[in-house]
């Protein structure tokens, strides 16, 4: 398995002196679907943001292939964020004054090898809403547009932080199925932070954070398909 990105002894302390990450060593492999779970406050989003180059660690290193991201200059870091990775968050972050098509084209402008526009919009089921504005769309549609914008630039890694967090079950499943399809079709490595253990069960690897450390890291021998998710009453890990 080829490593695409890895961390070495990552720590993070915020101004209030709380040590949120206490030495994280993780390697992520090319073309893999990884879920990061754990109770609220365990450090999942902080870790994701550090690996994605959105936040600097207090100590430790992040390597993208053989390049040390944590020693990049601001220019190198912005190139890394522009060309190598993409992010999808719970709030879709679409530009309200641009149409769906224009929002997606922002992704193309961040790429020198964009994927075919109509292939992506058809795959995500948004080819019939291209001239609409975000305010005219449902949450599920907006999230599919934000995924289209994120992947059309053909990133090596897609970071998702609670990407289905604001969606109902039907739309969560649809988005999740699309993310698995994208991984398979384009070989994009997916790192997905979630509270939802059912969603994590579809991943090939499940990493559990607890109090700033990796509490468990396991390969999921029998990932379930998104179609098979049985939504239970309590899928919120934060309450455990
Ligand atoms: N910018 C910040 N300044 C100060 N403390 C922060 C900051 N960001 C996060 N924290 C703290 O770091 C800890 C971990 O936060 P983080 O968001 O990484 O956890 P999480 O596991 O993703 O939680 P959740 O599932 O609720 O999103 C929390 O105690 C949080 O209050």
Automatic annotation (TrEMBL):
**Keyword ATP-binding included in the entry's annotation:** yes
Task: State the name under which the record lists this protein.
Answer: ABC transporter ATP-binding protein
Q: Which UniProt keywords apply?
A: ATP-binding, Nucleotide-binding, Transport
Domain named ABC transporter is located at 5-236
What Gene3D superfamilies does the entry give? P-loop containing nucleotide triphosphate hydrolases
Task: Identify the taxonomic lineage of the organism of origin.
Answer: Bacteria, Bacillati, Bacillota, Bacilli, Bacillales
Tell me the organism: Paenibacillus lutimineralis
Q: Which family does it belong to?
A: Belongs to the ABC transporter superfamily.
State one molecular function term (GO). ATP binding
* SMART domains reported in the protein's UniProt record: AAA
